[in-house]
Amino acid sequence: MHFLAERTDQENMAGPLKVDYAFDTEDLESSAKIVKFAILKKHQEQDAAQEHELASFEETMLPHMDAAHNLAKWLLRNEEDAQDVVQEAYLRAFKSFGGFHGSNGRAWLLTIVRNTSYTLLKKNKAVDLTTTFDEEIHVSGHDSVSPATTLEHSENAELIREAMDELPADFREILALRHQEGLSYKEIADITQIPPGTVMSRLARARAKLREYLAARIGKE
Amino acid sequence: MNCDEATNLMDGYLDGELDPVTSQTIEQHLRSCRNCEQAYETHRVLVRSIGIAAPYYKAPAELRQRIQSSLREEIAERPMRNVAPDAQPLFPRQQPKPRAVLFGTPWNWLSLSGLSLAAAIIFAAIIFSNLAPQLRRPGADQLLATQLIASHVRSLMANHLTDVASSDQHTVKPWLDAKLDFAPAVADLASEGFPLIGGRLDYLDNRPVAALVYQRRKHFINLFVWPAGSDVAKAAKTITRQGYQLLHWADSDFNYWAVSDVNVNDLQLFKQQFETRTPRH
Ligand SMILES: [Zn+2]
């Protein structure tokens, strides 16, 4: 009896323990699975969202890389700086892409490229950041070189580039935005952060100055 | 309207940015004033020539790669999500200890992106080991594709295309065999239009993998090779992402992922030629 009782006790003890243990483990495992699956699903959604965000950003912004590079190159006049600025601008744009709901991706990107370029120009203490406002506007051709002669040379790409590179930064940028990107006054005002009414007068001064520099270069030849 | 007013508004008129009434007034003045008319004509031609003659600085091709790569790094560096502790590695290891530690990590980018790369791979591993089979493959493939493209782009960008630069398979193969715990097949495919440029040790899931580098005209193909696991799909598949083509296939021993910006047909041709020139298992 004694033995039997002992055996029964052992069985009684072992039996429920085993069951309890098995039950607990299964329970734990299944809840862990549920939790893990929930985390996974969330991660998967996050990952898919990031993939989607990047794809949508690239689709919207990569087509404007030439415009971005062109503006940066005109502003910085240095290939290495231009590439650094464009890369930095794309990163900045990507980080704030969630806040971009507009339809004009190019104007938005160019605004960032411009601001990034000016940050670098200021850091490099560029002296030509803004123009002085006392320049006269020479539109009615009293240059030393005749308008006809200026026009003859005006399609000389190298001359135009040299003359444009001599202009202050805000003139270089407005000429690039207007003549190379074909942007409207409104878009130019948004990108350069000046009142729309100022765009025309700045363009007029930039063109007049370019013409003056062009004439000076032709005169030297 | 007098001449001064006309002169001041000339640029706006030229650009078509004036309201119709003002435009008409200028037009009338130009028709009646020969001086202003001539000045306008000269100005118009000069302004037109800026658009024609000023150089337009297009972005060089490598800038695009730089930017796409930095965007991917930006995503990878974002704050990590917590991951389950019992994640399984994406690739089965044949040896428990990665031999990479023996010869260190050859590139700077590894130390920069190693952590996030590892985290991303752990994440992939969780998908891999937990989701229903029909969900597994696409998720893991997409993530792997991202890593493969990143490796491909880095190899081109960092000027680190090859560790061993040789068109001789008998140079490249022994070099790789010595560095890896497996022995991938190597073949020069120059006569097929895909000259071998060399080999490189690369890492996926912190595991060393072989990268064979081939050239197709002016484009490069990275062929990543590592031992095949038991559950690898043998069927070839192509993925197109971010302007890159990826072609995957496997034999009984190895996984192959070819990554390039050549077109799909070229990559298919490359696979055929590679398989023809390397003994099948
Ligand atoms: Zn007049």
Task: Give a verbal description of the structure.
The complex is a heterodimer of chains A (221) and B (281). With 221 residues, chain A is mainly α. Chain A folds into 2 domains: 25-102, Rna Polymerase Sigma Factor, Chain: A, CATH 1.10.1740; 128-219, Arc Repressor Mutant, subunit A, CATH 1.10.10.10. Helices cover 77% and strands 0% of the residues of chain A. Chain A contains 9 helices and no strands. In chain A, helix 2 (65-76) runs antiparallel to helix 7, helix 4 (105-123) packs across helix 8 (185-192) and helix 7 (169-180) packs across helix 9 (196-220). The radius of gyration of chain A is 34 Å and the shape is elongated. Chain A starts with a helix and ends with a helix. The relative contact order of chain A is 0.09. The model of chain A is unreliable at 1-25 and 131-143 (pLDDT under 50). Chain B is of the alpha+beta class. Among the domains of chain B are: 3-53; 140-277, MucB/RseB, C-terminal domain (Phosphorylase Kinase, domain 1, 2-Layer Sandwich). In chain B, 49% of the residues lie in helices and 17% in strands. Chain B has 9 helices and 7 strands. Chain B has helices spanning 3-14, 20-32, 34-53, 61-76, 100-103, 108-130, 133-157, 169-179, 264-277, and strands at 164-165, 196-204, 207-216, 219-227, 237-241, 244-250, 254-260. Chain B has a 7-stranded antiparallel sheet, sandwiched between helices. In chain B, helix 2 crosses helix 3 (34-53). The longest helix of chain B has 25 residues, at 133-157. Chain B is elongated, with a radius of gyration of 29 Å.
